[in-house]
Design brief:
The protein is of the alpha/beta class. It contains 6 helices and 19 strands. It has helices at residues 14-25, 60-73, 135-138, 154-163, 183-191, 287-308; strands spanning 4-10, 31-33, 47-48, 58-59, 77-79, 85-87, 93-97, 100-109, 113-115, 131-132, 146-150, 169-173, 195-198, 201-207, 216-221, 227-231, 235-237, 241-243, 273-275. A hairpin with a 5-residue loop joins strand 15 and strand 16. It is elongated, with a radius of gyration of 21 Å. The protein starts with a strand and ends with a helix.
Length: 310
């Protein structure tokens, strides 16, 4: 017998938990598919100081856990599974979770975006301890320090410029001697006295996982192959994010980089399918904005079900 749900939510970050809370309180018994990165990017963060309601801050994993418990209290069901593909051609939508299928009268896609990492030996061990992909999230913690940004596009320039608010010096490392960044962003970064450029250079590792803090980088000059250590207090990745939306193929509209396109805030071109959080937001990428769109998607799903039935 097929399992048919009023609401299925893909993703368990801020947007997914918020959508779950609102749809559960509307007695819609939502099913949350946790995805391949349960908790989203906040699960990889240490102290969160910019989420309203926590004057002393809160640890990222704890904030996520609190959101989940709140949604479960009202009847949201969570399932450890990963969406491999979906058929959105007719309602109820068919969702493939490995060998299992679930049918959804409405679908909220809150699958987020995954930061691109360099794949360094110690990189994952130091995420939240000086290695970060979000300057606006973590820049404040490195006030008065010297830090590094890696990348050559607009994202890297924006991160570097923002970080000069806190750091005494920002070194922008890029593997080439030319940049993909737009001229206006590159000029802005080059005019900033706090930003120094280190080109034709790649990062080969980050230290020191034993101390649980970033102390230095292992760098290599791609022209001379010279390898050396470069002291720094933080490593920020400015090489972009990949939206987790490939499982929908061409059924939904995306921009050139694969982010889902939303109309009227959270609606997609498919009636009954809504988006929330970083899978559609390439601009803000904050916990509070993700939560806000999760709320909007939930309210839209509730209205849709009222109008079209289950």
């Amino acid at each position: 017998m097929s399992e048919i749900r009023n609401v299925v939510i893909i993703g368990s970050g801020c947007s997914g938990h918020t959508a779950a809370l609102y749809t559960a309180r509307a007695n819609l018994s939502p099913l949350v598919i946790e995805g391949h990165e349960p908790g989203g990017q906040l699960a990889l963060t240490t102290l969160v100081e910019n989420f309203p309601g926590f004057p002393d801050g809160i640890m990222g994993p704890q904030l996520i856990e609190n959101m989940r418990k709140q949604a479960e209290r009202f009847g949201a069901e969570y399932r450890m599974a990963h969406l491999t593909s979906a058929d959105l051609s007719q309602r109820p939508f068919t969702l493939h979770l490995g060998k299992h299928q679930v049918h959804a009268q409405t679908l909220i896609i809150a699958s987020g975006a995954s930061a691109r990492w360099l794949g360094l030996p110690n990189e994952q061990k130091l995420i939240g301890h000086g290695v970060s992909s979000c300057a606006t999230c973590d820049g404040f913690f490195f006030s008065g320090k010297e830090i590094v940004v890696v990348g050559g596009g607009d994202s890297a320039m924006e991160e570097a410029i923002f970080l000069t608010r806190f750091a005494t010096k920002v070194t922008l490392i890029h593997r080439r001697d030319s940049f993909r960044a737009s001229k206006i962003m590159l000029d802005r970064a080059q005019r900033n006295e706090k930003i120094k450029f280190l080109t034709n250079t790649v990062v080969e590792d980050v230290y020191d996982p034993v101390k649980q803090e970033v102390t230095a980088l292992k760098l290599r000059n791609v022209n001379t192959n010279e390898v050396y250590d470069f002291p720094t207090s933080a490593l920020f990745l400015g090489i972009g994010h990949d939206p987790n939306a490939k499982m929908f193929g061409t059924q939904l509209e995306t921009d050139a980089d694969g982010y889902l396109k939303a109309h009227n805030f959270v609606n997609t071109k498919v009636k009954g399918v809504f988006v929330a959080g970083d899978v559609a937001d390439r601009r803000y990428r904050q916990a509070i904005t993700a939560a806000g769109t999760g709320c909007m998607a939930a309210l839209e799903a509730e209205k849709f079900l009222e109008a079209h039935g289950g």
